[in-house]
Amino acid sequence: MDLSRKNDYHRIRVEFVDNVNSFYWNQQFKQNQVPLEDRPRLIIRKLTDQAKASQQNLLNELRETFFNEIDDVQPFWIVNMIVLQAKRNAIEFISEYPGVAIVDLEESRIQMNEYIQISESNYPKSVGGSEPGLIAINAPALWAMGYTGKGQVVYDYDTGVWPQHPAFAARFMGNFYPLEQSWLGYYREEPTGIYSSHGTHTLGTMAGLDTSTNDTIGCAFNAYWIACDHIRGTVPELPPITDMVLAFEWALNPDGDPSTTHDIPDVINNSWRWYDNGDTAYCGGFVVNLMNTIEAAGIANVFSGGNFGPSNTTISSPQRINTSDVNTFSVGSVNGNTSFPYPISSFSSRGPKQCPGSGSLAIHPEVVAPGQNVRSAWGKDGYNSISGTSMAAPHVSGACLLLKEAFPMVSGEEILRALYQTATDLGTVGEDNTFGMGIIDCLAAFDHLALTHTPVNPNNIAYDIAIIEVNNPSDQQVTCANSFTPSVTILNLGDSTITDLIILDSILGSGNTTSWSGTLLSGEQTTINLPTINVSNSGPNVYQVIVSIADSASQDIDLYNNRRMVRFNVRPELSLPFLEKFENGITADWLIRNEDDQYGWETDSTEGLNWNTISATMQHFWYNPIGNQVDELLSPNLSTGVGSNLFLKFDRAYEDINSTP
What we know:
The protein is α/β, with parallel strands linked by helices. The chain folds into 4 domains: 10-107, Alpha-Beta Plaits, CATH 3.30.70; 125-450, CATH 3.40.50.200; 465-570, Immunoglobulins (Immunoglobulin-like, Sandwich); 575-639, no CATH class.
């Protein structure tokens, strides 16, 4: 680290001597048969206590003594680490501070495992069809039993997702819970797949089903999902590795309450890799601790194996980590469109791993799954067929969701090990550095787990009440009204008759409680009118509705579908005369509607107006294709009064794209 210039800021990573040994605690949890629902809370408490003990004094002294020499301080608890911008004097102080183990420049990056584009065509829907890759891993055998991933949550750790895609829009956790516990945006505050449909494609393979056509592209097509947009494909865009840590830290506690577990995903799908050399970096240290912590919390953590085949020793990090035979759990690619035995994809990375180990610990990948010419979701409502181990990993993640529904008391580690041990051998007899243990078999893994655990019967659902629709206000509505009389449509998805319900609705902390009595048979739905609500806040608003069965002994099997978040926008009302110069930007008085999430309205300096130098602008030049771009700039609600003589005036201009700005 070059510290010759004392006033230069350096982005550094500070690691501490004392760390929670999550590998040890995972073994203790298993040995002492600690219930799965208790493990996240216990490991989070140990991690946060250790981080506070190691970091608090140092942070206090830095803020008191070096407040002008530090910036952008990011403390973490999932690993005992601080990342910050610091000048030379502060760095020297930190390096000598008791308990500090490592001070190093933080320059690492993460990126997606690039897919191999087979065709630019937008593949059509397959009415009533199932993708061959799903058949190759024997997912239909579990579907036939009734397992569909219902009630399970997957975290699509990827490039972002188009949340409105019909294959999975209805099961976005943001429909039921606050957005901040459903979407972690590094680049965008709201869910989007604008950067790449890579994340949309991987999610489709895990959880995709278009119910209008019964087009089954996903293994666990009734699972819920959360997502982030931390992954990018080109080096200049890559986020730092510490933001990878943040994305895992969020996964352990999305709602900010360590006592709850319903918000924690059952499976994390990671179709990405470090941007690093093929060496032994990250075979130890904070990255290994991170992977062990996710495992100790009970989450199945699945990685794509990499697209650097067929050469050997092409294993990126964290795929090269080998704490155990299933950590990390990496997936190679085969062509699932052919018949058995499925051939390896030429691009699929082969082992051995660079991290020290022998036997199974040295072999890569752990298993294989279909990753070649895989059709899945693409864009807002389309489909595409692409290839890569990024497409193989979601098959394994989807299988984990099916098995988790069947065995909710089983940890992600145990589910992955069942898939690993029961995989169907391919290639050279036994585990090898091309196919690993072979292609996963959902039914074989189910039978293996059933030897020691009793599966939940998916066809015996006593109680499951679901909100189908909320009206007035409706989701994404833009309105000038500030008073609403809502109604909620409720469906009984359970086997039992329901006679009493309680509906809680709220907005801006003010709520109502409504009781309903009647007879709601299995499969029936009813619409209930709710009290009028008055909205005092212009701009974005969130209206929440939660329905529950009045009898507390009647436990609802699904914790998610009995609630709904309705996000709508109330336009402010302003009086005439109204003049907008946009000198403060496009303020909250105006609403930008940019449904394609491409180039939209913004402000820029302009010349030629003697009364103003700022204008709202639209970059028409960048529209691609121009014909499909529609962006709106909505004014506030203007009160005209009675009998007013009205007029509207605005100035407009165009810039010649060939001129010098």
